[in-house]
């Protein structure tokens, strides 16, 4: 690969200290929402600040394994949400559940280690054969497109919610229906005001990135978030003054319940050794190990994507075995502190692509900010108050750039050949169509399904591709 002409700062470049801090803060803002929402979804008392701390430490571990050559941030993995929930569901105590998610992350990380050792011994040429540009390109595009649903949904939401109880019909063990109640927390803000804040954020990011000079061009996300947050804050202030909850977009009430230190997972987990047995560990293994193979596919697609952006094939330098070891061990460390296994983040890749800043020093600083922020409640809470609509506006560009990066890879593919056309088509349809397979507690995501189908179609048509190439 040739060096990317779009980078303002390369992987080894070192911006000045103040620039680096600002660039790092932008990376933190890009990965923040997804990283801290995973513990909220899993529940069971998992700490958001601990998850952020784990992401920061896990990222540093990843950078060490990759010899500081891969400018990617690791954050909480959505793929393991079902696995984490299964660990708590099968535990006889809360402490055992915490220990279970650490054991699960270790088992998943060991899968990465085994694959890394195989790749170290066999090389990566076989990967290039079964996953050429016709497979990786549309898969990367699907990563962005599959996330786009979240961006659009967030665009209409504020951070202030209220409980709404609805009556639902349920059935008992005998099949007899009965009425029960379900409480959901729904946003209170007017969707049009949220949309306005999100679009202002989006427009600001675009204008800064396209027309901005120097720093403005490199930190469009920070400026965009500040613009959207300012507008949302004005509406929220008016809402409080007039006692109109539909105008309240930002949840400043979070400052009332600040937690001044993260609740690390291992503290509670160490109490659970007496409550686990071989059957429980077996349950954990079934819940985590298969998912690790699924996440490996996404790991490969992410690294092919960032490779195309920085102009260096990371699967060869520093090597796919190193990126896998970094991801696997970083995931173990992240779960030890925050409960959530880590994974490479598309939001981080998108941030590199849009800002043109691939400096690894920026990623290191972002990781340090996450670690420090976990102990500084006011900053952690301030970041958590950024409303969904503002982050939705930012994610429009982040997820869009991921999709476009994949489409750029497809440009290299000769789509006049039916073999390539079928491969790309199957991946796009499976991914955009949201093909998801649930096998017990295991969920094979749409991205993984699309990639697996793409690999199978590529292998099915590989003979035809070879014959056409020989005919030339």
Question: Can you offer a commentary on this structure?
Answer:
The protein contains 18 helices and 6 strands. Helix content is 67%, strand content 7%. The strands form 3 sheets. Strands 1-4 form a two-stranded antiparallel sheet. A two-stranded antiparallel ribbon has the order 2-3. The chain has a two-stranded antiparallel ribbon with strand order 5-6. Mean pLDDT is 84; it is low at 1-5. With 472 residues, it is mainly alpha-helical.
Any idea what the radius of gyration is?
23 Å
Major sheet: size, sense and barrel closure? 2 strands, antiparallel
Can you tell me the residue ranges where pLDDT is under 50 for at least 5 consecutive residues? 1-5
Give the terminus-to-terminus CA distance. Answer: 25 Å
Which range does the strand content fall in?
A: 5-15%
Counting DSSP H or I runs of 4 or more residues, the number of helices is 18
Number of strands: 6
Biggest β-sheet: strands ordered side by side in the sheet? 1-4
Please tell me the overall pLDDT. 84
- Tell me the overall shape: globular
Helicity range = 55-70%
Order of H and E elements: HHEHHHHEEHHHHHHEHHHHHEEH
Based on helices, strands and strand pairing, what is the structural class?
A: mainly alpha
Question: What would the keywords be for this entry?
Answer:
472 residues, two-stranded antiparallel sheet, two-stranded antiparallel ribbon, 18 helices, 7% strand, disordered N terminus
Task: List strands and helices in order, with pairings.
Layout: H1 17-42, H2 48-65, E1 74-76, H3 81-89, H4 94-122, H5 125-130, H6 133-154, E2 161-171, E3 177-187, H7 191-211, H8 215-218, H9 220-242, H10 265-269, H11 278-310, H12 315-338, E4 342-344, H13 346-355, H14 360-373, H15 377-384, H16 388-410, H17 418-432, E5 437-439, E6 442-444, H18 446-471
Antiparallel strand pairs: 1-4, 2-3, 5-6
Helix pairs in contact: 1-2, 1-13, 1-14, 2-12, 2-14, 3-4, 3-11, 4-11, 4-12, 6-11, 6-16, 6-17, 6-18, 7-9, 7-16, 9-16, 11-12, 11-13, 11-18, 13-16, 17-18
